[in-house]
Write a structure and sequence with these properties.
mainly alpha, elongated
Length: 171
């Protein structure tokens, strides 16, 4: 949360500084607009990670509420698999675009564009990891606390049986 707050605060300070320098001092900052733009990108992706950890992304549960517990579990598995596929695509292509832009300098700042793009694969990895832990924590909290690790086999069992408390214990 701290990194997202810092990115947003930095973006806000850049925009505020730009307004102050442009309108009150008559001498605009050359670099603040570009930095604010990049901080906005980073704040957005960091917000995605936070929302994944808190499980606070928007969802439409009209279909989910009309399904039986087993159907709800199946739909959760489909959603989780779609999330994994999306994360893999973002990691692969985000990594490629980051590498391609490591030697491209920003227009007015002192770092390469690869730094700006690096948040894409990083956010995909972290959001998927935090969402997986949050899902397994909600699905099988006793095992999370007992073992300290989200065991996917147990969580998959929990999802398959629709959360009826049928869990394997242990790894």
């Amino acid at each position: 949360d701290g990194a997202a707050i810092a990115a947003f605060a930095g973006m806000f300070a850049c925009v505020l500084g730009q307004v102050g320098f442009r309108y009150f001092l008559g001498d605009p900052l050359v670099w603040s607009d570009e930095l604010a733009r990049y901080l906005f990108v980073w704040a957005s992706f960091l917000g995605w990670i936070i929302a994944a950890r808190r499980r606070s992304h928007l969802s439409i549960d009209t279909v989910m509420l009309r399904l039986a517990p087993r159907g709800q579990a199946a739909l959760r598995v489909v959603g989780a698999l779609a999330g994994v596929a999306f994360a893999v695509v973002l990691v692969v292509y985000g990594w490629r675009i980051t590498q391609r832009n490591l030697d491209v300098e920003t227009t007015t700042l002192f770092f390469p564009m690869g730094v700006v793009y690096a948040i894409v694969p990083l956010a995909a990895l972290l959001s998927h990891a935090t969402e997986s832990v949050a899902t397994c924590s909600a699905a099988c909290p006793s095992e999370i606390h007992a073992w300290g690790v989200p065991w996917m086999s147990s969580c998959s069992t929990w999802l398959w049986y629709g959360g009826m408390g049928v869990l394997r214990s242990g790894p």
